[in-house]
Amino acid sequence: MAFLSQLPVFHLLNQSRNPMEQWDSDELIRTYLKNGHEPQKQPDPELIRTRLKMFRVRMFELEKLRARILPATSYEFDRELAAVMYKRKLLLWMSFPIRDLPAEILTTIFRLVVWSSTGADQATQHRLWLTWVCKRFREVALADSTLWNSVWFRDSAPWKRSLAFIERAGTAPLDIRINEKERPEDLPEHLTANYPIITVDQINIILDVLIPRVPQLRILVVVLEDMDVIETFMRRFSSAGPPEILERFEMHRTGAPYLWPREKSQEAGAEYPLSGYPTPKLRWLSLNGLSIDWNRLPPTNLRTIDLRRMCVQACPTPDRWSEMLAASPELFKLSLDAAGPQWTAQRLESIRAIDLPCLRDLIIGDMSCLYALQILAHMNAPRVMSLALMTLTGQDYGPLMEMMTGRFPEVRLLQIQGMELNKTDVNVRRAVKWFESMPRLKLFKFSQTKPYLLEALLADPREYRTPDEMEVQVADGQEETRPIICPELEALYFQQQGDKEVSTIVKGRKELGVPLRRVYTPNTNQPNVTPEEMARIREHVGQLFVIYHMLVTEEEDVIHEEMANSLGLAVAWRRYKR
233 near 207, Cβ under 8 Å? Predict the structure, then answer.
């Protein structure tokens, strides 16, 4: 405790301009814990009590001195008082008899430690550290099964740590994630052995532990490369027993071929069902690069449907798809990437549209225009607030834009990545009308987007209206106000755009009297933007930010919270953010 006598010169508190505002900050405590040494012996209780009294007396003296010189202030008084309060806080913290607390209170503290972790690696580290402090901590931690019921197989085979966590979880609900080590894209061939894929024999070892615990599974996320391993997992899991509390099921195949192959598909999906038993609590279904027997999927009120990379034969039939949507009135997110209902040559008008009043997040990607039109025909979702159109290339998607016009008036976040649109008068009009039909748009994210689509944000919509759509003539002597497309738009997020394309939009919005507050671009895109273009953007926008590590923008965070609030899910959203 020698350090408590005087703080070193380099201490953060001695370097602070406002020590009275920072002495109680979490940053100082974290710095102390990171740099401090392990105690070698039990502190002397009498010495601690004596020093606490000394600190208390000095606090009163300094507070009196500060009061005498008011309204003047003294940086020296403030710094010394902040240092005394900081040292007193540490001493109280170090002398607190935490090991004497009842097990129930210690358990609550341990849960807060683990549940406040940022990421799976830190959560694993925190749980292990709790068991290493002392015998008392270890006994309390091991007795609480909920500390161990979230297991991510990030250790190497034979996964002794992960399997030990499952044993410690006892009969608690299990949240399981299984995946192989992710290989870097530019990994040299001679280093691939450091990133082994899971084999059939190895997945059977994991399944031997999981299958008796299927009734305990609450969340199951599996990411595997090999198709035979995927099929082995699905075959054994589908017949293992009733997943009575399963809420979230994700299965991702990362290897070739890109689509789940036709030869492994039947008329309505694959050979194996998700489960041969009812899944009454299933709310989240994500299948990426594989399929299931859709006819054996019990109707359930899904809140998230995420389907990717399926051949036509692996998709549910249109009738089965309609049944799934009708059984999911609380559907919040629908993501379809090279997947969806089977395409049939029927008129769009004959498709029964299912009302989805809770759908807020819609993603459509990597599909033909006709297929996308048919997907939209299956739904009526006027409350969508986040719309993403991804990798729609190889043909003209003008008809899709026309069909979307007026369908999603509540959109706040629009994302376009590589949407093909031929430059014709018809398509320019479609683009203007489409953007005009989203008056509440706040954030527009785009990549590889045609400039004439972007320029629709600067157009005068009156020039594209038919005589029937023209407004009533204004009174004599009054000027007609020029309507603004997307008047609430306040931020752009761009990457992989041509020179002057973004600055043209930013400048044009400013000249219209609706300047953008912020423009974002990822750091990976910065080399593609000339310094001149960056300067032009800064000239006409409030702030220009370069985003690192795919951070979520402030606007996007606000929009997602608004989406959650619209359905009373604000508490769940705050937990997700943490």
Answer: yes
